[in-house]
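call fold(seq) -> tokens
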Amino acid sequence: QVQLVESGGGLVQAGDSLRLSCAGSGHTFSSLFIAWFRQAPGKGRDFVAAINWNGGSTHYADSVQDRFTISRDTTKNIVYLQMDSLKPEDTAVYYCGANWAGVRAVDVHLYDYWGRGTQVTVSS
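ret:
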């Protein structure tokens, strides 16, 4: 069984930065592809970014390309999402998910494990 716990959310102003963390446990965590998704009020859960087991391959949604960076500390079993130049439209609950399908898996149904999420609010 894999468990995921997100942290690092908060209230910031447009243009600010935040770093989210996804701490994983379970004997297969280090082998899984890990992704960040986000869900705004009244909307579906959208793909943000994903990373492979050693950080050597990443994939981003067009909306966050060049502003967000996903990384992985394999010694600590943590995946980070560095978010820069935040915009009000980035406001959402951010979830991390784990899958076996690959770094380009953008469909929520491909994910086997989820955390409970962390709220990010960006004011204008």
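The two ends are 40 Å apart (CA to CA).
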